Model the fold of this input.
Amino acid sequence: MPALEVRNLKKRFGDVQAVDDVSFSVEPREFFGLLGPNGAGKTTIIRMITGVLKPEAGSVLIEGIDLRSQFLEAKMKMGVIPEIGNIYPDLSARENIDLVGRFYGLSKATRQERTAKLLSDLGLKDRADDYARKFSKGMRQRVSIACAMVHEPPILILDEPTEGLDVMSRRLIVDKVKEMNRNGSTVILTTHNIEEANRLCQRVCIVNKGRIVAIDTPERLRRTTEKMQTVEVGFDKKVEPQWFISEFINRAEQCNEKWRFYTEDPDKAIEHIVKVKERQGLKILSLSTSGPTLEDVFVKLCEVPG
Amino acid sequence: MNWKVYFRGVSVVARKDMRIYYRKAPVFIFGLILPTFLFFAFFVGRELDINKYFPGFLAMSLFFTSSSVGPLIVPWEKQQGTFERLLSYPVSISTIVLGDTIAGALFGLLISSIVAAAGILIIPISVTSIALIFVAFILGNLCFSGLGVLLSSPGGRAPANIMMLAALVRFPLIFISGIFIPLSGMTGAAKYITYCSPLTYLVDALNHSMGQAYVFSWWTDLLVLAGFMVVFVAVAIAVLKRKSLKGL
Done:
């Protein structure tokens, strides 16, 4: 049975079809990424999965439990960090986590034990009883992730949990989420950080204009975009991009001191670059090839200009 | 429906509200200071029979305190960014509305009990039915706390705007509910306007319980208060279901 199954979800806001017939499923213990540009519909999908927003059509099953008919039972299975998911500034870190434990019916002893462990793991032990309003954004987000984890949910849903955080907080949060995943929780992550998704997720779902445009492992997605292979070359002199455009090179762009050439066939592209080099009297300082990045795939699929 | 999870949600929401919102300045200003000032403005320097007007004053104090917490909670949470997170917990909109209503009602119950005790012990006010006071307090506090929650349900994320709206609704009510002019002395159109206010029935029930002149039977008062309570809470749930994401 999938940990999460989303079937034909639809949501419209006025004239805008925010989510249009979205279906996917996430297996137990999977680390699943939901990617898309701003306004793609990611947060609307997450809000419908977490029961914050009612879909116009479609259904959401959490470990086989229908969110519509067994609303509270399904929500008991989830730990959520919503997009706008602040903690209570008028409560301490400990009180915030304890409050969430109460919502999930944890006993006092369990709440105390888990709260203490989470505060320690997330580097907040010394500030446990300070009001959250005195915390930095990174510290607040660490408390927020502790709130989502205190009941050790089978499914963890995180809407951009590391957005705008310092390196330390980001690392603590990512490590804790990975630990939860290793311990058996399914993780669904939305992020703008494609590198993070590439590093963490076993599968990613790319959403654009309310529709799924791709869903696969990062590796397979990269392979679907063969034209996005690149040859990166450093020259000793200034060059003009039009010298290189040919049947083997689709596009050339400057990256700092180097030039990046996009090609379907790196071998032919290199041959062509060498010919241009000899014709123009250039010297090659460095040369490397690489396949398309997940970011390249994302840009191509979402038709982001540039 | 898992009722255990449901009622646990109601109790945790109420607990959270009590822990956070009882200490907020608008609750003190609109719930405690304002009715005290109104009392002094009306009574000081006038030769009034305190026994006659005490039920009205007690009802006014209950009305202000119980309806002061509700309007604050949802807009405050939307402004702080905690509301969406609350919605993601195992709660429904009705859980939140009921929890908020109970938190407001308990605040009103606490303050109005202190005022009643002070009146009975210090003045002393005569009481003919302590049970009726108790039931009227419970229903009155739930009813007006529900009204407070209802006032905030269509709003966005600006507590100040909602508190202003709440003041606009609450002030006229105290002038058409037999607090400053006894219900038994009202005639003509004023009498019928008075009947539209839920506060009228609380004043009348307290008049019953303190041996003062009343208009309706005590059970009519309690029934109407209960009816208003159900309507306020039901409408608050319906409105908040539609507007829960407004201002997020």
Summary: The two ends of chain A are 41 Å apart (CA to CA). The first strand of chain A starts at residue 4 and ends at 13. The domain at 4-216 of chain A is CATH 3.40.50.300 (Rossmann fold).
